[in-house]
TrEMBL record, chain C:
Single GO biological process annotation from the record: ATP synthesis coupled electron transport
Known partners and oligomeric status: NDH-1 is composed of 14 different subunits. Subunits NuoA, H, J, K, L, M, N constitute the membrane sector of the complex.
Transmembrane helix as UniProt keyword: yes
Keyword Amino-acid biosynthesis: no
InterPro entries: NADH_UbQ_OxRdtase_chain4L/K, NUOK/Mnh_C1-like
Protein name: NADH-quinone oxidoreductase subunit K
Catalyzed reactions per annotation: a quinone + NADH + 5 H(+)(in) = a quinol + NAD(+) + 4 H(+)(out)
Membrane topology note: Multi-pass membrane protein
Highest taxon in the source lineage: Bacteria
HAMAP family: NDH1_NuoK (MF_01456)
Annotated GO CC locations: NADH dehydrogenase complex; plasma membrane
Gene name, Swiss-Prot/TrEMBL: nuoK
Primary location: membrane
Organism in which the protein naturally occurs: Desulfacinum infernum
Length: 175, 649, 102
């Protein structure tokens, strides 16, 4: 029992460290001007979110997060950075009203969402299942939620074609 | 109202004929027969003849009727207020109706000659019919509202006829001036009607008179109503201070001056006063006001007639003065005297104007000196008739004016304040003086060296018979007959005074002497007054002869010795100048300024302000369309956040 | 760790930071990064509800998977659009793209 208590408190402590990583990563992703810092911050943040998914009971999803987000999206972003001109060579003039508006809008939205989150009496469902296996996920994806599966495939197809077409067109236009 | 009454009630048919035929004549002329001059003339004269016949028929049939005959149809019905329209045929209205019909008829016949060859012949007759219609319906109106409506229509006819020669600037200005000035008085009139309506509730004339006499109406209502209605009289009958429109109204054709501005239209004010005489008499304050205004008018206008050389202007000022005299009489309580003078004045003033018209038609000038030099004395018929008229005006026995003036002076003598009697006598003297000044100017002209062509014209016109058979034919006789008829009437009417008095007051002819206020009694005071008046009149004539008629006279008048006074009289006591200045100050400097400023700053400024506001607002809001993605996003997010907060809290 | 509100708050913070980044950053790629943050915040929300409230745990995970797939597709398209825009404007400053001004 004390062992579980120690493990519990350790897990708790690590949880907060992970949350710290998430926030730090997010901050790194948003505030610095250097785009490379932003990408690295994003990677850090997404890794932290993957860990949070672990805490939320889904090993599968944590791995998927790492695979898709960190492994694919962030790398794609890095490629895009490589292909673009660095922004700091331009004249960066930060405008005050824009800053104030941005802070204000974000603050309002944050307040709204947290208010809703804290004020609502969230009721768990009456009967809760306990099946967290991947088999179930796969089974559901191919039977009951087959539409989701198909749609995601379709979306990815369209995205690929779209990406090719967009870049292909603009190359023709610019030459 | 069906046509069933036509064979059943001749009285009503006659009244309806008077009230509708001239209107139909006018409509037909204006719409259909405008290009056909003779036809238009025939229609109009035909209509007025029928009206004359109807008026005489009514007078004769109803002259012994014990009570007034009234026909009424409900016109405006509103909760507890009923305003009728119809006809009131009592003694006074029938007398006035006859006067109007006779003089309208004579003038329209006269106009056949006078207006011969004028391009607007049809239009002239259309407006004459309009006037006849309006005046006659006004005379037999049973209620104040109908009277007021037709009073205004008479004013309209006057405007149209004064401005008949509309191409002439002065004529159209004179028409405008007449209309506006009388309109000013009518504002008071209408306020008076409203006062009576609010205070008494009924606008029927008989009812009003009866109630006022019985004391049923609150005295304040009576006084206020009487004074306000008297404002209408001031306007229409050219009393002080609204008298300057009448001399200017001489711009119209002379028959118009004879009909409207001497005999009938301007007498409408006096008629109104006598119509509601019991109502007026119930308020001594209103009578006092009217008496003062009448006196001032009479004296003022007489002085203006001393210095003018225009033949029509003299008679115009004389009309104003005599109207003031009539108002004095009515205001002093002399009902019959005032009405009698109205009747006789209609006769001889129309006569004077028509004779002047003949002179003007012959010599194409209004100046009495030129008419005299042109040989005016040689036109027998107009000269004799004009002299008859002038004798009547001056109040010389045996002409009608003598009797009516005596009646009025008798009334004034019975008034406690002898000042008014003095004013009346002075007025009689002045009247005799200026009327014979004109006569002597024409009778005894002074020859002055003239350019050659004037003499030729004078010779050519002086002998009317040599002017051409066509001209001297029906044109001349169309003008001569009415004049001769009127002269005869003037000669004879005075002797019917007792009959008229009996008729009007509903008394037996033998019993007229009882009313001291009416007749001034038959005591020695009465004969003294008679003698004084006769002496003054003859004295005035003689004085005029000394100054203008005598061979050795300079024809300059005693006023030449007082040039300032002469200028004062000639400029109408500067009344027109005063009005011009007041108008300029009030309207052009005051109101026009206010309205211009309002127009520029408030209205234009307002609209410009709205424009500027819209444009500026648009410019201010246009930052939303900066094309910058992030600004739009900010707004969206803020909106969503606020919505969530509003619904969550 | 064991209460829903904590996760919801963390997700809200992530989302708001992402939102702030979208509104503030002039670099187009920076905006894309911020958008990924927002998507992750939403995903975290889904997973938290799945863990604490949902009747069937698998369904929440399927939804979260779906969101991830969409995010990937969107990132791909977004990057290609950025590249196209870069070729046009020779810059990835979002404030340069003002053709729709007015």
């Amino acid at each position: 029992m004390s062992g579980s208590f120690v493990i519990d408190s350790l897990a708790h402590a690590v949880f907060w460290v992970v949350v710290g990583f998430v926030f730090a990563g997010a901050a790194l992703a948003v505030f610095p001007r250097n785009i490379v810092y932003n990408v690295l911050g994003l990677i850090l943040c997404l890794t932290g979110v993957a860990a949070l998914f672990l805490y939320l009971g889904s090993f599968f999803l944590a791995l998927m997060q790492l695979l898709i987000y960190v492994g694919a999206i962030c790398i794609a972003i890095v490629f895009a950075i490589m292909l673009s001109r660095p922004l700091h060579l331009e004249v960066p003039r930060r405008r005050m009203p824009k800053l104030a508006a941005g802070i204000g809008a974000a603050a309002i939205f944050f307040t709204a969402v947290t208010t809703v989150a804290w004020k609502t009496a969230w009721k768990p469902a009456a009967e809760r299942g306990a099946d967290w296996t991947i088999t179930t996920i796969g089974h559901l994806l191919l039977t009951r939620y087959a539409l989701v599966f198909e749609i995601i495939s379709l979306v990815l197809l369209v995205a690929i074609i779209g990406a090719i077409v967009t870049t292909g067109f603009s190359r023709r236009l610019s030459s | 109202m069906s046509m069933m009454w036509l064979p059943h009630d001749p009285v009503l048919s006659a009244a309806l004929a008077c009230a509708t035929l001239p209107f139909l004549a006018m409509a037909v002329i204006l719409i259909f027969t405008r290009p056909y001059q003779r036809l238009s003339c025939a229609i109009s004269v035909g209509a007025i003849t029928v009206c004359l016949g109807s008026a005489l028929y009514l007078l004769i049939t109803l002259r012994h009727a014990p009570a007034p005959v009234e026909y009424q149809w409900a016109w405006i019905i509103s909760s507890d207020m009923l305003i009728p329209f119809g006809f009131l045929l009592d003694r006074l209205s029938l007398l006035m109706l006859t006067i109007v019909a006779v003089i309208s008829f004579l003038v329209q016949v006269y106009s056949i000659g006078y207006m011969h060859g004028d391009p607007g012949f049809s239009r002239y007759y259309a407006f004459q019919s309009l006037f006849a219609w309006a005046m006659m319906t006004m005379v037999i109106a049973p209620g104040m509202l109908q009277l007021y409506i037709f009073w205004e229509l008479v004013g309209l006819a006057s405007y149209l006829l004064i401005g008949y020669y509309y191409e002439k600037w002065s004529a159209s200005q004179a028409g405008k001036k007449a209309f506006v000035m009388t309109r000013l008085g009518d504002i008071g009139f209408f306020l008076g009607i409203i006062t009576v309506l609010l205070g008494f509730g009924d606008l029927g004339i008989l009812h009003m008179n009866h109630a006022a006499q019985a004391g049923d109406i609150h005295p304040a209502v009576v006084t206020l109503g009487a004074i306000l209605i008297f404002c209408g009289v001031v306007g229409k009958s050219a009393q002080f201070p609204l008298l300057t429109w009448l001399p200017d109204a001489m711009e119209g054709p002379t028959p118009v001056s004879a009909l409207l501005h001497s005999a009938t239209m301007v007498a409408a004010g006096v008629y109104l006063m006598s119509r509601i005489f019991p109502f007026f008499a119930a308020s001594p304050d209103a009578m006092a006001v009217a008496l003062v205004i009448g006196t001032i008018t009479m004296l003022l206008a007489s002085t203006m007639a001393f210095v003018t050389y225009d033949i029509k202007q003299v008679w115009a000022y004389s009309t104003v003065s005599q109207l003031g005299f009539m108002v004095m009489s009515l205001a002093a309580g002399g009902y019959f005297a005032g009405v009698f003078h109205l009747t006789t004045h209609a006769g001889f003033k129309a006569l004077l104007f028509l004779c002047s018209g003949i002179f003007i038609h012959e010599y194409h000038t209004n100046d009495m000196r030129e008419i005299g030099r042109g040989g005016g004395r040689k036109l027998i018929i107009p000269m004799v008739c004009m002299t008859v008229g002038a004798l009547a005006l001056a109040g010389i026995f045996p002409f009608s004016g003598f009797f009516s003036k005596e009646a009025i002076l008798g009334v004034l003598a019975a008034h406690p304040n002898k000042l008014f009697l003095g004013a009346g006598l002075l007025g009689a003297l002045m009247t005799a003086y200026y009327s014979f000044r004109l006569i002597f100017f024409i009778l005894f002209p002074r020859e002055t060296p003239e350019p050659a062509h004037h003499d030729e014209e004078a010779h050519g016109h002086g002998h009317g018979s040599g002017h051409g058979a066509g001209h001297h034919g029906h044109v001349f006789w169309a003008m001569a007959w009415p004049v001769m008829i009127l002269a005869t009437v003037t000669l004879v009417l005075g002797f019917f005074q007792n009959d008229l008095q009996g008729y009007l007051l509903g008394l037996e002819p033998a019993a007229h002497g009882h009313d001291a206020a009416e007749h001034g009694g038959h005591g020695p005071g009465h004969y003294l007054l008679l003698a004084t008046a006769v002496c003054l009149a003859v004295g005035g004539v003689f004085f005029a002869y000394l100054e203008f008629g005598w061979k050795k006279a300079t024809q300059e008048g005693f006023l030449r010795k007082f040039p300032a006074v002469e200028t004062l009289f000639a400029n109408r006591w500067y009344m027109d100048h005063f009005y011009r200045k007041a108008l300029d100050l009030c309207v052009y400097c005051g109101f026009t300024n206010i309205f211009t400023r309002n127009d520029r700053r408030v209205i234009d400024g307002g609209i410009d302000g709205i424009c500027r506001f819209t444009v500026g607002g648009g410019r201010a809001v246009s930052f939303l369309q900066s094309g910058m993605l992030q600004y739009n996003l900010v707004l969206m997010v803020t909106a969503v956040g606020i919505l969530v907060l509003v619904f969550a809290l | 760790m064991n209460s829903l509100s904590v996760y919801l708050t963390v997700a809200a913070v992530l989302f708001s930071l992402g939102l702030f980044g979208v509104l503030m950053r002039r670099n187009l790629i920076g905006m894309l990064i911020s958008i990924e943050l927002m998507l992750n915040g939403a995903n975290l929300n889904f997973m938290a509800f799945n863990r604490f409230l949902a009747p069937e745990p698998a369904v929440g995970q399927i939804v979260a998977l779906f969101v991830m797939g969409i995010a990937a597709a969107e990132a791909a398209i977004g990057l290609s659009i950025i590249l196209a825009l870069f070729r046009r404007l020779r810059s990835i400053n979002v404030e340069r793209a003002q053709r729709m001004r007015g």
